[in-house]
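ugh finaly. both done.
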Amino acid sequence: MSGPDLFSRPRRIGRGAALTLVFASVLAAGAATGSLPDDGQKSPAEPGGSVAAAHEAPYVDPTEAAAEAVEDGKSPVQAAEEAVSRSGDRWGAVYSQGEYEEFEQALDGEYTGVGLWARRASDGDVQVTRVRSGSPAQAAGIREGDRIAAVDGRTVTGRPVTEVLGLLRGEHAGTAVRVGLQRGTRAWSETLRRANLSTDPVTTTRLSSGTVLVKVGAFTKGSGAKVRTAVREAPARAGIVLDLRGNSGGLVTEAVSAASAFLDGGLVATYDVRGAQRALHAERGGDTGRPVVVLVDSGTMSAAELLTGALQDRGRAVVVGSRTFGKGSVQMPSRLPGGSVAELTVGHYRTPSGRSVDGRGITPDLEADDEALRRGETVLSGLGSPS
């Protein structure tokens, strides 16, 4: 592992699920979020709190625990898992070498899944919002608007969307997952075979109102540059709706790159790594005149929250939707004997005004649920066109 990459993502649900929360927005990919740079440069920042304040229990180094276990002839993975558990770190986790490689693949825009996106409907059900062309889900006849009632016999009503999508994921292509579905009064089950899929995390659509909708499903490698291209190529007088609903994060560096599409330099976020303060800045030259609305919901997480908070605090966008997830902690991976990887929370990030996201989320400027896109277009019409 080259360099101490930092990640901020939800903890997996059980060992067998393997990175169950890696990119919820990319369909059956859960919600791993954000690699941060560690270039050794310290920058003035808002007080972020030390790592000791981030834990209810003293910091426990799983790497040291694993090394001691090897000397004692015990399992290094089990020792690391016990150390993570004792730490009281709700986001801490230990991954096998294969699981971690799968996560890194997802950051490259590849994943193993069934090819569908979902969100929490107003009635609490998990509703399919999009089906990937050529995917196992499309081949099974699943359509937008269908409800997911169960996965492998487990009722999912009331479960977080990220967890449901995590259950749909698998470590290997070809493995089967049985999905219980509802469409109106019809209820049925389909057995899907997971496949290796690639993602196009950024899509651009010209709406009838003239607004340009830029949907970012996840911050995988290259997504920030795609957002900047979409904004640069938008018609001169068109407003932008940046849709981050269901975006469970990804690489924080890509979120900062996306922020650079709308900012002319300046602060995007601050974060601390075991008490040492850092800052993330946008590049200069972004479009600062075009009206922007950001759409968010409870599935907007981590790196996506960082971007939302930056545009909101900097007065660059109106945020429409519902309160975001509230994942603002940073994890650092450490390689264990045998190739496994342990992660513990080492810090938290804050918005430019110093707001903490972790456990709180981002509150939108305008609350909206199912009609968020329509409300966003209405807000844009009130903001006016760039001169």
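ok and the 2nd:
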Amino acid sequence: MVSHLSVAAEPRFMPGASVQSRLLGFGLRHGVRPLVSAWTMLPFDFIPPNLVDHLARLLPVHEGTRWRTIGLPACSAEWLRATGVDESTDRGAILYFHGGAFLTCGINTHRRLVSRISFASKQPVLNVDYRQMPREPVASSVHDGVTAFTWLLEQGYRADQITIAGDSAGGYLAFSVARAVMDAGHGKPAGVVAISPLLEFDPARKQSHRNAHRCQAFPLRAFTRLSEVTHNFDTRRGVAGRRVCPVDMPLADMPPTLIHVGSREVLMADAELMANRLTSAGVPCDLQIWDRQVHVFQAAASWVPEARAAIEEIGTFVRHLAESQRDVTAPAGSVRVAATRVPAARRAASV
């Protein structure tokens, strides 16, 4: 197999790695990566208590951010607005899914990141505390996402005003929920934003990628182990049938997509594959490769300048989607706002 995909989506390389970002990478390589490596060597399936989400309650958010708890049928969520953001349905809204490999993290660990995305996009965000393993399979996480999407519809937002976003495992959910809501007849979302997305549980393509052993956050073995753990949990819960990962879903009718990934991440294999397949299906996809940045570096926006720049890119993408929808739905004779086009990827041979 080839060691690196020839990307059809004309990726944009975002150069530069500040001292802060290099220090962050050093910390992950010598702190987080050894812990993940130790987890992969355990002879049994072990999911540690999600203490990190409880401790994250102490983290500050973007100044002026307000949020309230929303009760959904099977989980909870937070309706969050950064300073200066109102709840007007004219601007649209974001549905956000946190990362954590479907095993850890939550709305507390990601509230700070979500508040900055809300501020950059000028839209409120529904941050979903979806069910995770080992209590529930991935299918339940997707179901919670669809329920959250319908909650936004009930608040008066149209499907084409809702951008679905997520990081890491949340990127998996962003695509899966977009597919599920369209299949259920709820309409087509405005767009998808995927930050360092995990899009395929099968580790085979990651093993053959040039970044297989370059990632500062995760050893390759982590994804093999995650695939095994997920399969074991599904088997114990009696989940039947083959899971269809986002890269293997029907993509021709998917909404415009923005994908962020660090240039040395092992998950670049997933990002490139999805970008290729979206492009080959005729879907606009802006794949941004950030020079030497780590997994979900956007979460470090308080002190890493590239993270702030990346969040502004996300905000610009979401705002342009909203402007495009306002332009399309403007009544005859009204003043129309000229919306900047979402970067369109050129077509190429299928992967």
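summary for the 2nd one i guess: The longest helix spans residues 305-329.
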